[in-house]
Design a protein that fits this description.
The complex is a heterodimer of chains A (about 110) and B (about 230).
Chain A lengths: L19 E9 L5 H5 L11 E2 L4 E2 H6 L4 H4 L5 E9 L6 E5 L2 E2 L4 H6 L2
Antiparallel strand pairs in A: 1-4, 2-3, 4-5, 5-6
Chain B lengths: L8 H10 L4 H8 L4 H18 L6 E5 L5 H9 L3 E6 L2 H5 L6 E4 L12 E7 L8 H11 E10 L5 H23 L3 H4 L2 H7 L3 H9 L2 E9 L4 E8 L3
Parallel strand pairs in B: 1-2, 1-4, 2-3, 4-5
Antiparallel strand pairs in B: 5-7, 6-7
Classes of the chains: A alpha+beta (about 110), B alpha/beta (about 230).
């Protein structure tokens, strides 16, 4: 998963945002990937509310005149493993093989 | 009682996980190679709407994405920032598109409010645990459009029986040809057909949250397509 995903993820149980990312293993994406190519002409911040890489709100980054080029850092990073935690309900979700596993525990017991 | 698979999801979901390799081939055969045309109709309409709104790199959720066939079709029409969501890790790991992936459920979507410009779902909504909750979550996470193509059930009793006959007898036969010994997993589609409400009720469920632009039934109501725009509160 990419850091920018944290800007849209919320806790599936209590809908709290943002989640706290703890990245354990990362690798670099090739710059030739389709995902990155699409962004070459995008002249805006990748995230709209929260930058998980810098752990700052986009509002704060804009007021500090941080250029959008710094924002490009995160799209080259693939988080292979780690976790996402909710500060409100204390739920924790693992990131394994680059995919965040965001299913609340109660569903595993009864439905999945 | 919730409308949808409820606790039966457990055995349907385990079946989907085992179908990954033969999933698309069997889908093609079961629909007499119509599956892509049905998906394309929906992605084309959604792309048209997004283009009209002039959103640069719109953010789109493919809910119940499987390997991302719907997202791939949409991406060919309009360059978009796609997120694939499915409960099956096996399906996501076999995705056909380079984008963000998340394991999640319709009923408890792991996204903040109004974050997607559109939400699409191809042959997935029928596998909801609770359709009312799913539709409300679709509306919560998306700003405007939704496009769904899914297994349905006609409100007409005769058509409903024809659909049941096809699912009881034809699907196991076709699946036997394409999926080999895994064909037993496709038999669990019967459970989906038994638990989904009829199409008239589905229309009502979506109408609660969306202004429906298109609601089309095909093949005796066993397939339906919805193109809708979120109601402004």
């Amino acid at each position: 998963m990419r850091y920018k995903l944290v800007d849209i993820l919320a806790c599936p149980q209590c809908k709290s945002f943002p989640l706290v990312l703890n990245s354990k293993k990362e690798e670099r994406f090739p710059g030739s990937s389709e995902f990155i190519k699409k962004r070459h002409n995008k002249n805006s911040f990748e995230c709209s509310i929260f930058c998980s890489l810098k752990n700052k709100s986009i509002k704060a980054m804009k007021s500090q005149h941080v250029g959008t080029e710094i924002c490009r850092d995160c799209i080259y990073i693939n988080i292979i493993s780690g976790s996402l935690s909710c500060t409100r309900c204390k739920a924790e979700y693992v990131v394994e093989d680059s995919i965040p596993r965001m299913i609340p525990k109660r569903f595993f017991k009864t439905h999945i | 009682m919730a409308e949808g698979l409820g606790r039966n999801a457990k055995h349907v979901y385990s079946a989907y996980r085992k179908m990954v390799k033969s999933y698309e081939k069997t889908n093609q055969l079961m629909t007499f190679f119509m599956v892509n045309a049905w998906r394309k109709f929906v992605t084309h309409k959604i792309a048209e709407n997004l283009a009209k709104d002039r959103i640069k790199l719109p953010r789109v959720l493919d809910a119940g994405a499987g390997p991302g066939f719907m997202a791939d079709l949409l991406n060919k029409e309009i360059s978009s920032d796609i997120v694939l969501m499915d409960y099956s890790i096996e399906m996501l790991e076999n995705s056909v598109i380079d984008c963000d992936k998340v394991q999640g459920l319709f009923e408890a979507m792991p996204f903040r409010d109004n974050v997607f410009d559109a939400t699409i779902a191809g042959f997935a909504f029928h596998a909801s645990i609770d359709m009312n909750k799913s539709a409300s979550e679709f509306a919560r996470v998306s700003k405007s459009y939704v496009g769904v193509v899914s297994i349905g059930k006609s409100s007409n009793k005769l058509y409903m029986q024809l659909g049941k006959l096809y699912i009881d007898h034809m699907i196991p036969l076709i699946a036997r040809l394409s999926a080999g010994k895994n064909y037993v997993e496709f038999k669990k589609i019967k459970s989906i057909y038994m638990h989904i409400p009829d199409n008239a009720r589905l229309y009502e469920i979506f109408k609660k949250y969306y202004n429906i632009d298109t609601f089309k039934e095909m093949v005796f109501g066993t397939i339906y397509q919805i193109i809708a725009k979120k109601k402004i509160k």
